[in-house]
Amino acid sequence: MTATSIKLPDDLKRRIDKLAGSINMTPHAFMLEALKKETEQMELRQRFAADSARSEKQAFSSGKAYTLDSAFDFLESRAAGKKVRRPRMHSWRASK
Questions:
Q1: Residue-wise DSSP of 27-61
Q2: Beta-bridge mates of residue 65
Q3: How confident is the model over 52-88, as pLDDT tens digits?
Q4: What is the spatial distance between Cα 31 and Cα 25, in angstroms, rounded to a whole number?
Q5: HSE-up (13 A, CA, CB side) for residue 90
Q6: Rounded Cα gap, residues 95 and 79, in angstroms
Q7: Per residue in 3-13, pLDDT tens?
Q8: How far apart are CA 58 and CA 27, in angstroms?
Q9: Cα dihedral across residues 84, 90, 95, 96: positive or negative
Q10: How far is CA 14 from CA 24, 35, 37, 69, in A?
């Protein structure tokens, strides 16, 4: 494990100490957990943005996409544990 030094504003350090103590954590463990969670969230956002850009490119190049209603119905059914077929894609054209 690599050691890193970080300078915190006094107010932030007091807030971290208070919160960490309230959940029986050391300030160090609290900060590690916070950094880990934020890193995972940022990675997830980046993957989402990349997936969205690929989907948009595919939709513009193919001229086909799922309707919003069919996508929501599909996702709701999947979330409920039902086995469903993917919806059919429909042709569309971009606005001018």
A1: HHHHHHHHHHHHHHHHHHHHHHHHHHHHHHHHHHH
A2: 90
A3: 999 999 888 999 989 999 999 999 999 999 999 999 9
A4: 10
A5: 10
A6: 32
A7: 999 999 999 99
A8: 46
A9: positive
A10: 15, 17, 21, 49
Structure letter (DSSP) for residue 78: H
Burial class (CB in 10 A: 0-12, 13-18, 19+), 83: exposed
8: tokens are 């915190």
Residue 56 half-sphere exposure, CB side, CA atoms within 13 Å? 6
What is the identity of the amino acid at 33? E
